[in-house]
């Protein structure tokens, strides 16, 4: 059994430089010209071992190559191949990487270069975070990864649409859904005298068929927010159909009215809410200019 390769910034940088410099070379042509360059041969071997490179033509083999940077792509394929123990930090969110540089400086530097510690994440950084989060939650990156990632992308699309919609309305909005999965909401708006918390639910089903699953943590969060009476809480339901987007902004009291009745002393872990309960308040939103 071959020993796992350690994640090193220098290796990733060299691999990025190699891929950018030899986009149009074949493997045979490259070896004929560079046969004495052992370092380059090691890079080719590394990229092949993480199943990113097709050796015969030096082409990147990944469906995500146009969605994220080359550095992010190499890092993701490394994580997919070797699944280091710290991959599990992605399950809770980026908050779980606090102090990570003390545990593994090389890996921290790689993730920092991937852009996940920036104050404001770009769309490609969010895409990379989703890849890593889903990878951390599936035991093996097989068909279950593909299915879970598709669901994650639907959720992220709604979160981004809510972020841009609120920002365009002049609100100072923070997207916190990638920071901490346990907050009980996805976005935070600063209203000067108070804050508003937004939980986003998204579906590609029609409004008549779509359902949202409201977790116990989300229920507790909006109930505590309402009881405190200091800040506001809203739900955003997004329905994406035929390249169109529809949004319903819903207050917690309206959500509560649709919940299944809980037996005395029993707390249902998750409540299922039909979008069609709010069919009359869905509005079509133009999202063509959103960076999705």
- Estimated radius of gyration: 22 Å
Q: What is the helix tally?
A: 10
Shape: elongated
H/E element string?
A: HHHEEHHHHHEEEEHEEHEE
- Which ranges are low-confidence, i.e. pLDDT below 50, for 5 or more consecutive residues? none
Helix/sheet category: alpha+beta
What is the mean pLDDT? 89
Largest beta sheet, briefly?
A: 6 strands, mixed
| Major β-sheet strand ordering | 3-4-5-7-8-10
How much of the residues is beta strand, in percent?
15-25%
Question: How many strands?
Answer: 10
Intertermini distance: 42 Å
Helical coverage, percent range: 40-55%
Write a structural description.
The protein is of the alpha+beta class. It is 40% helix and 17% strand. It is built from ten helices and ten strands. It has helices spanning 9-21, 27-34, 38-49, 70-82, 100-103, 105-113, 123-137, 143-168, 216-228, 252-256; strands at 53-54, 59-60, 172-175, 187-190, 195-203, 211-215, 232-241, 244-250, 270-274, 283-285. The strands form three sheets. The protein has a six-stranded mixed β-sheet. A hairpin with a 4-residue loop joins strand 1 (53-54) and strand 2 (59-60). Helix 1 (9-21) crosses helix 3, helix 1 (9-21) crosses helix 4 (70-82) and helix 7 packs antiparallel against helix 8 (143-168). The radius of gyration is 22 Å and the shape is elongated. The model has no long low-confidence stretch (mean pLDDT 89).
């Amino acid at each position: 059994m071959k020993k796992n390769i350690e994640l090193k910034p220098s290796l990733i940088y060299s691999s990025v430089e190699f891929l950018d410099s030899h986009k149009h070379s074949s493997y045979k042509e490259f070896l004929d010209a560079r046969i004495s360059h052992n370092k380059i041969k090691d890079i080719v071997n590394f990229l092949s071992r993480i199943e990113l490179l097709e050796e015969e033509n030096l082409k990147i083999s990944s469906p995500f190559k146009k969605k994220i940077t080359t550095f992010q792509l190499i890092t993701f394929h490394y994580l997919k191949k070797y699944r280091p123990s710290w991959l599990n930090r992605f399950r809770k969110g980026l908050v779980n990487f606090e102090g990570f540089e003390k545990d593994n400086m090389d890996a921290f530097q790689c993730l920092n270069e991937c852009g996940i510690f920036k104050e404001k994440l770009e769309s490609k950084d969010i895409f990379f975070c989703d890849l890593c989060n889903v990878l951390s939650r599936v035991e093996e990156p097989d068909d279950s990864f593909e299915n879970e990632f598709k669901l994650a992308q639907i959720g992220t699309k709604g979160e981004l649409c809510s972020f841009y919609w609120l920002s365009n309305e002049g609100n100072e909005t923070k997207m916190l859904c990638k920071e901490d999965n346990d907050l009980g909401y996805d976005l935070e708006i600063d209203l000067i005298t108070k804050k508003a918390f937004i939980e986003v639910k998204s579906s590609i089903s029609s409004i008549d068929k779509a359902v949202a699953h409201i977790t116990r943590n989300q229920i507790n969060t909006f109930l505590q927010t309402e009881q405190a009476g200091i800040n506001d809480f809203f739900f955003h339901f997004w329905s994406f159909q035929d390249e169109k987007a529809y949004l319903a902004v819903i207050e917690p009291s309206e959500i509560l009215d649709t919940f299944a009745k809980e037996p005395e002393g029993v707390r249902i872990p998750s409540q299922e809410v039909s979008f069609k309960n709010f069919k009359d308040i869905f509005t079509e939103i133009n999202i063509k200019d959103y960076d999705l």
